[in-house]
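Hi team,

Filling in the usual template for the complex we talked about on Friday. All components are listed, including any nucleic acid strands or ligand strings, so the model treats them as one assembly.

SUBMITTER: L.P.
PURPOSE: interface mapping
COMPONENTS: two
RESIDUES: 354
SEQUENCES:
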Amino acid sequence: MTVVRTIPRKSRLSSLIDTSGGVSVGVARRQANANLEAMKERSQALISERLTALAALVEPATPQDVLPARAEAYRLSSEIIDAAGMFDMGSLCQAARGLCDYLDAHDGQGRMDWRVVTVHAHSMRLLTSLPDAAEPQRSAVLEHLAKVLQHKLGPNAAD
Amino acid sequence: MLTPLLEGLRDSAVVNLGGAVTLVVDDSPFSLELTTQALMGFGMPVRYVCHSAPEAMEILKDHTVDLLFVDVEMPGMDGLELVSWLRRSGLDPNAFAPVIMTGGHVRKDKLNRVRDCGANFLLTKPFSATTLLERIVWTARDTRPFLEVGDYFGPDRRFRSGSGPGGVERRADLIRKAELEAARAAEKAAAGDEA
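RESULT (copied from the run log):
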């Protein structure tokens, strides 16, 4: 038999949020967006740096090299999501997440197709260079990457 | 466009987050700064920032915190271990503090652990400042009790119908029940048409 103990608990945050003072939701959002906008240039520089490093990774020559190379590619791809994650760069995040999924699915034991890393690195670079209005091209790149992952990971690649 | 949760929280609604003591834990300096800047925009000064779980543990032992933002992936002790430790730490009131976990990519083997570590929920990137604010407000208004069940200690993992952040029922038994009722209703309607 499993014993369940319920502890009713009200957080201090729940009382604080309704105390007098504070800011309106509109002002809060505007201020936060302004603060983030000030960091956008640094975000783009960081993304560019990580993409260059990702594209420069070479296919591991020996089985012993696979694990560290995979970890490095995962780290770089995760950092791209971190840097892009609070800006309007959903397509870049989606591509980077796809690569992370692929790398996560390979524990270093089985054969890994390094071309998946290369194609993602170049596709992400392309996504960052497309103008805002190029939505059809962005969708086409993402569709292509989804097909690559589906081919490599099977039909549940996007799950 | 406002998300469903914020529909009741219009631009003119006022929230006071200025008095909340906040702790942000993230090994990535840039990511930590992004979170901090967004929170400051909400009028929520960040009292403590940490680059690792052990650093956060030291702060939590000595200072009361009202809200935590914890990155899932961190080298060494990760965010999930930190939250599990906090919930079982016996530190009152910190053990009951709301925790929002953040992450870029969450590895498959960690997804269940996110659910079991006792965090209030996980926010995966990309997310906007609006979504972050929405989650903070939702967390503040979260009325779920804490449960201790076996190894689990944290907020009740079941959401009441429509009360989750997305307003979507997540309990499998209730989803199945609703599907069954809908199927029965459709059958009844079809039988009525035939008659």
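MY TAKE: Chain A has seven helices and two strands. The first helix of chain A runs from residue 12 to 16.

Thanks, L.
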